[in-house]
Amino acid sequence: MSAHTASQALADFIQASPTPFHAAQSLAERLRAAGYQELDERDDWRLDAGGRYFVLRNQSSVIAFSLGRGDMLHQGIRMIGAHTDSPCLRVKPQPELNRHGLWQLGVEVYGGALLAPWFDRDLSLAGRVTCRDAGGRLHNLLIDFQRPIAIIPSLAIHLNRDVNNGFAVNAQTDLPPVLAHGIEPNRDLRALLANELSRQYPDRGPLHVLDYELSFYDTQPPAVLGLDNDFLAAARLDNLLSCHAGLEALLASDGSQACLLVCTDHEEVGSSSMCGADGPFLEDVLARLLPDESERIRTIQRSVLVSADNAHAIHPNYADRHDGNHGPQLNAGPVIKINTNQRYATTSETAALFRLLCQQVEVPVQSFVVRSDMGCGSTIGPITSSRLGVRTVDIGAPTFAMHSIRELAGVRDVEYLGKVLTAFLDCERV
To answer: Where does Zn(2+) bind (predicted)?
Structure first.
């Protein structure tokens, strides 16, 4: 797959995945189309040798695995981990605001969002709605308005002359988006959702909305840009880029080894949930794959996890924010992330394995260490490694503007990451 083909496939995935629920649905659709069988955690599992399966939890996290042709106990499992969520603005439970002739919705900031870029964007709304049908049955339905229905207008510079000297965004007062003129005094979000659901699910009949998990998102589509088409600009590159690369690698693997892809929700808020990396989802699945505890421990000790989450590329306008010897560049290959305080789970052994894989498939590789006088972010790597006891390497594609409403990556890095992850899933020894 060429760099531009890989970038277009990623762009299509991002467009179809405005929320973690939609991302998990997109992953599930691709897995079904590739012959993976869906499992239900409430059922008894009967797994066939060499079978390919996937399971969803909370409609926002997914684990897919191929049992391979080899002996899992002696060869281990090759695991790739990523996350489906991204920083955004989530709608509050009672969000309606009628102020000065305008109808707005109150929002809560999800994760460590870079807030300034949210202003003056064409926003839409998507997520999951829990509703009751005419027969009293509950349904969890995904919704996506798709078209621009909201905006957060900036305050004119004439009314804030010092804005270019620094502007602290107040999440409570500055961020409620504007959706309409307030000429309908009884306008209600749940009624709006019910009407949209009837349009998207016409066969369901009348639906009464009980609750929801909704996120605003930028409707501007991904774009390949630059004089030489070097860059991919898009929302949610952190971390849908890694989810997509992991999926492509899983589908392209040769089936010789036992492989597993885990994409969990809630990484941006600490992963502590029943479907997050700090919850029991992966452990529950592994316990059902390997019911014997001794065999499970032995298998995990022969396994490796590649925790894939975007890395900070060196910004030409802010190069001093990087350690001088550890400034990853766009289009220069995946980045091994290292932190002596275990904010990343990389060890010399796992870093060496990843470097060797990159050499074998002729993919360039880089390193990132945060400046010693700055705090370091983290990933699902240390969480999963500490819960399972599995050897882990933290890596990611270099990126600008991480946690912005629109991030930037290199088109060649999309191809590079998919190529080395496929090699990892196919390698005989880890």
So the answer is: 83, 158, 403
Dist. CA 402–CA 405, nearest whole Å: 9
Count: domains in the chain:
2
**CB-count exposure of residue 246 (10 Å: 0-12, 13-18, 19+):** buried
Same domain, 31 and 15: yes
Question: Is 80 exceeded by the pLDDT of residue 1?
Answer: no
Write down which residue in 172, 188, 218 finishes a domain.
218
- pTM value is 0.96
DSSP run (H or E) holding 233? strand 231-234
Residues 424 and 254: beta-carbon distance below 8 Å:
no
What average pLDDT does the chain have? Answer: 95
* 228 in a structural domain: no
Asked whether residue 135 falls in the same domain as residue 41, the answer is no
Known binding-site residues equal 83, 158, 403
Enumerate the known binding-site residues for Zn(2+): 83, 158, 403
Tell me the two tokens of residue 282.
Answer: 């992966």
Contact partners, residue 381, CB within 8 Å, separation at least 6:
81, 305, 307, 309, 344, 345, 346, 392, 393, 394
